[in-house]
Design goal:
Length: 376
Amino acid sequence: MLEKLPPRAHDALNSAIASMHAALAADGQNFDLAAELAKRHLERFRRDQDPRDLGQAEAAIEPWLRQQNPPPRALVLRASVRQSNHFFASALDDLDHAIHAQPDNVDAWLIRANILQVQGRYLEARQSCGRLILMNTAVAGICLANVAAVSGRPEQAYLLLQHLATQIPPTDSLYAWLMVSQAETAVWMDKQEAAEQFFRKALVANPRDAYLKAAWADFLLDRNRPREVLALLAADIRNDNLLLRLALAEKQAGLNADLAPHVEDLRSRFAASAERGDRVHLREEAIFNLKLLNDPEKALSLAEADWQVQKEVADCRILMEAAIAARQPARAAPAMTWLKTARLRHPVLTSLEARLASLGFATGFAMQAMRGEPSA
């Protein structure tokens, strides 16, 4: 026995999942029940980031996926699993087949937009968001705002989100997503006080969401508020992403006795992921190597591999930070190109861009590489 996993808490979601498993065991041909069970597993994965839920979600609908023409809902659910595992090409393939069979599938268009945004394919992402307008204007609006925020139009995004906030009440299931979107857009516009208010409202609406906790922890760490991160994440050490933030807070707070075992735990987890061929957390592993192991060269290699998969603000940031720490600014050229193409003026990224420029002659090679010019 390698490890004994803790039992699930008896909350409403876990109880619903347990009941559905029992019902599906008694009625294994019920697709609607299987699809709902898969949906609940995906919901719990987004909350807890436990990869077991991804396997269980796909297993629930696997008999229907073996059919010659799987139901569109099954394809969309598998696409969500593949998206979470960063198998973006196969996820998009599933979504294209689902959309061909069911052109008004809201979930399919939204997941498609999210994947394309993560890949930096903003025109295609906007087009997918636009297809949602006649189906669900609120979802379409948040989707379009998120793409605009990272592709040179944060002011438009901010105004659109403010307008949607007058229409989406705190009781709406979209409210937490709206608040996170507002918070991140505010951060990128250097509206720090507003961002904090939005983060806090999102936490009230959805206090257990793992993505939200990580984003809030990053916000606090950037402002040297590690004690708040410690209080936030003390009970989340099973989640790799949140354990990383907890360790960063311990380092920032000077709690070396607590930090050491968490560093070793993370080292083991990342090594195990690499052995499995699981490269979902390349960005986090790069951050770990740069900020906790002080290994900028390995961090830079991981950040470069991560950039081949996804292109978000955090991916750009770690690639630039690692290139600076390794004193190899030319290797940050892809991130610099993306910054210029996306016209994103995130304050932290702007500062990193200036630091790369301050490295002087070496940065000239990076700028030449970005423009496709030969070096002297």
